[in-house]
Amino acid sequence: LTCLDELGYAATSTTEIAERAGVSRGAQLHHYPTKAELVASAVEYMRDAVKRAVETHDDDVTAMLKSMLA
Question: Which of 3, 16, 42, 63 has the most CB atoms at less than 10 Å from its CB?
Fold first, then answer.
């Protein structure tokens, strides 16, 4: 998601994402064949993290939400 924030969707490449994540291009393509699938998975991950934090009344939820919106 950092790539998307810094570069925007159009300028973010799956190669850049793989490099930043420290995974091989082959491994990334095995799990996420398209940029759209990769981005959808990242958004779902963040949604689930926020949901868990809210459900458990995690004290850090406010800080997490603020950092996501910064």
Answer: 3
